[in-house]
Amino acid sequence: MVLKLQRPILVGGLGLTASAWLLQLGYPSSAHLGETIVWGAMAVGGGLWWLKQKNQTTLDLSVANAVIERATVEQALAAIAPLLAHLKTELPAPTDGVPAVSLIPTLGDRLEALTTELDRPELRLTLLGGQGVGKTALAQHLNAAWTPALAQPLTLADPTGLFSDLAPAAVLPATESDLVVFVTAGDLTDSEFQVLKQLTERKQRVLVAFNQQDQYLPADRPLILQQIRERLLGLVPVQDVVAIAAAPAPVRVRQHQADGTVVETVEQPSVDVIALTERLTGVLTESAQSLIFSTILRQTDELKQDLLGELNRIRRDRALPLIEQAQWIAAAAAFATPVASLDLLATAVINTQMVVDLGAIYQQRFSIEQAKAVSGKMAELMVKLGLVELSSQAIAPLLKSHALTFVAGGLVQGVSAAYLTRVAGLSLVQYFQEQSQFEPEPSSLVVQGDRLIRAIKSVFQDNQRPTFLQTLVQQAIPRLMPKAAATVLPSATKF
Question: The pTM is what?
Answer without folding.
Answer: 0.73
